[in-house]
Amino acid sequence: MEALLPQALRLFAGSASNPVENKRDVFGLVSQGLPTLFSLSPSRRLPQLLRQQGYTRVLSFVPIPSRTLPRWMLPVGDPSSMLSGTCMYQPHKWAARAIKKALIGMMKMGWSGECCSKILIATTGKLALERLVTAVTGETEPVFAMSLGRQPAVRKLTVQVMRPSGAILGYIKLPLSVAATERVRNEARFVEQLWTFPKLRAHIPQVLYSGDWNGTYVIFQSPLDGERGPAILNGLHEDFFRALHNVHSSEIPGQTVINTVAAAWETAVCQLGREWDQMGKEVLHRATQRLQRKTMRCGVMHGDFTPWNTRVRDGRLLSFDWESADWELPISWDSFHFHVLVAYCFGKNKDLQFLWRDSSERISFMLFLLSSVCRFLKEENHEAIGRHMEVIGKCLRMEDDGDRTSAA
User: For the segment 232-277, what is each residue's pLDDT rounded down to a tens digit?
Assistant: First the structure.
């Protein structure tokens, strides 16, 4: 994680320099004329030394929970901005909620990062990211909080942009890998297209800016304020799905869906081993038997529809993180994804049989799982891949039991 922080800070600061470790580093880097420097372990005297060398703007952050395992980086200085920075993390598990509540309580009592390691960024003028924010929003003194994603292969630095008062202006995603860059591009395309449908605008963020920036590709989106999204599907989700599918949905031949999954699976399975090879062939074979002469209702799919990617405001469900969105997949797959991830993360409704009414829906569910494995492989999310194997195996055994019962 120590190696990750310099990468993320170079991207944020627009600097290719190495971290400042001591006084000698400062003079060495200053002599190179670098406009921006950063330090992962600044001394108390470092900010003053940097200002003496012409680095008039110094930003300080406290990494939470620690520098070796950073999830957030909160701005040090104005208490309003620091408190507002916690809004980018809305945990669902009770332990994480309790920790966040305690942290907020400490801030309200006056804590501003004392006794914690700090991260420092110093610049001779405005950061490139500050200039972008000013151009888009008009705010001349933006304040930032940051969050690092969990999956290394598709990791991004997400930046919460605020006014000095703590009011949130939006979120910027800075990809830290090639795969992450493609996902950010996909999200920009989808959200911009979805925004052209007025009835959907109340449910999604607006793209304020997207494009090539400082050697990478970024997206800057408006904030979605609200409470945590519920961990159980309810009428709010159904209203959202209805609005989403009114944008686009149609009946697609089952074989077309099977072919789409099979093409992705052919690329992925060579990295998964014999057991997955056999399992994938069996799922595709049974899908062909049951679905090739049927049609499947397909349309816009969010692709990562989970409680932590939703908010609720004014009786309406809001949804963000459209990186994995697709225009032409079975509309039931978003709810499949939601239920499966809730079962994995919270241990709720582990018996997933309620997700299908008949064998055809169970086959569609297995196709969804196979498609998800292809995505998880790109993310290097091996824990989820292992869990999907267990669920597919259980579904195949149920299919076998059903066939034996029919034969009897």
Answer: 999 999 999 999 999 999 999 999 999 999 999 999 999 998 999 9
pTM (global) more than 0.90: yes
In CATH terms, 235-407 corresponds, of 2.40.50, 3.40.1350, 3.30.450, 3.90.1200, to 3.90.1200
CA distance 282 to 256: 18
Q: Hey, how many other C-beta atoms are within 10 angstroms of the C-beta on 33?
A: 7
Cβ 227 vs Cβ 190: under 8 Å: no
- Strand-pair partners of 227: 312
Task: Write the CA distances from 270 to 257, 276, 384, integer angstroms.
Answer: 21, 9, 18
Distance CA 401, CA 408 (A): 11
C-alpha angle with apex 149: 18 to 202, nearest 5 degrees?
Answer: 125
Alpha helices in 347-381 (DSSP H): 359-379
Closest CA to 308 of 1, 85, 93: 93
Amino acid at site 122: A
Nearest to 131 by CA among 292, 14, 271: 14
CA distance 404 to 394: 15
pLDDT, mean over the chain? 90
Bond from prior residue into 47 cis (ω within 30 degrees of 0): no
Query: Hey, how many other C-beta atoms are within 10 angstroms of the C-beta on 352?
Result: 16
Q: Which two tokens stand for residue 276?
A: 């997955």
Show the tokens assigned to 213: 């920036």
**C-alpha to C-alpha distance for 21 and 19, rounded to whole angstroms:** 6
Compute the distance between CA of residue 363 and CA of residue 67 in angstroms, rounded to an integer. Answer: 46
**Residues 192-224: tens digit of each pLDDT:** 999 999 999 999 999 999 999 888 999 999 999
Contacts of 289 (CB under 8 A, 6+ apart): none
CA dihedral 88, 108, 164, 85 (to 10 degrees): -10
Which tens digit of pLDDT belongs to each residue from 287-328? 999 998 999 999 999 999 999 999 999 999 999 999 999 999
> How many whole angstroms separate alpha carbon 373 and alpha carbon 388?
7
Backbone angles phi, psi at 160, to 5 degrees: -85, 125
Other CB atoms within a 10 A radius of the CB of residue 215 amount to: 8
The DSSP secondary-structure symbol of 112 reads S
Tell me the domain boundaries of the chain: 4-223, 235-407
